[in-house]
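Lecture 7 notes: from sequence to structure.

We start with a single chain of 316 residues. Read the sequence below before looking at the structure.
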Amino acid sequence: MTESNYWTDKRIVVTGGAGFLGSHLVEKLYEAGAGIFIPRSAQYDLQTELGTRAMFERAGHIDVLFHLAATVGGIGANMRYPADFLYQNTIMNSLVVEYARRFEVAKFVGVGSVCAYPKWVPTPFVEENLFEGYPEETNAPYGISKRVLLVHLQAARRQYGFQGIYLIPTNLYGPRDQFDLETSHVIPALIRKISEAKKAGQPLTVWGTGNASRDFLYVEDAADALMLAAQRYNGIEPVNLGSGEEVTILGLVNMLADIMEFDGEVVWDGSKPDGQPRRALNSGRAYREFNWAATTRLREGLKRTVEWWEGQCNSA
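Now the structure, written as tokens:
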């Protein structure tokens, strides 16, 4: 079977398929001709054995399972609910992997997080750095839960021959992101804050010092990576998915202010945490193993995201 029709008539499950990354992945899978089952949390509680088993029984034969479902949030949410983030993600990941193995899923694509990396490692991070220290404190419980997912997949492969792979995307952004200030990540939070500051004619207040740096990956590039990896990669080692474009939060704020034509005052709230000092991924393994590299430059991706957000505001 050629790659051009690889997905035709495949039976695919996408946990978290109605979420941010999941919705973009599902669109691409439908366009490629796949048959897709998206378990919804209201029907299948993947934090319980009963709900997880029911989901697999309903799905039937599964050619590829993309496990994207997670309890997520920005720095604020991670600091408020660390025990919930650790428990809910660990129990769900463990149940989904175990039942995928029992139900003989042909290929499992696990999605990790850049938050799993240690706080202090050379930048850009390489996969061998993953267990060389403790994650940054503000999101360590979530990061640890993602490390457990990798270890479980590797253990299931060694013991049972289970075909599970593990991908580590950096910070994602793009249309359909979460713009609720209580739970959002930095880019959607900044877009909303700039929009509201501009309308009110008030200063823009930003958490931290602006000195921390990040590597932001456009969501459609991430969805492409997941599909390519499912087709071409079957290794036991984790694989980074980064943009190759590191930017400080100060630089990000300036870029967004320019795109959104905001010329007001910016106030940096140094009482709030910066999070990890630097965060960027080396994606060389992804290119070598399945010929993937990000194609969307940050400024272009930010423009598309701002346009989507403004469209939502205008249609509300």
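The chain has a mean pLDDT of 95. Keep this in mind for problem set 3.
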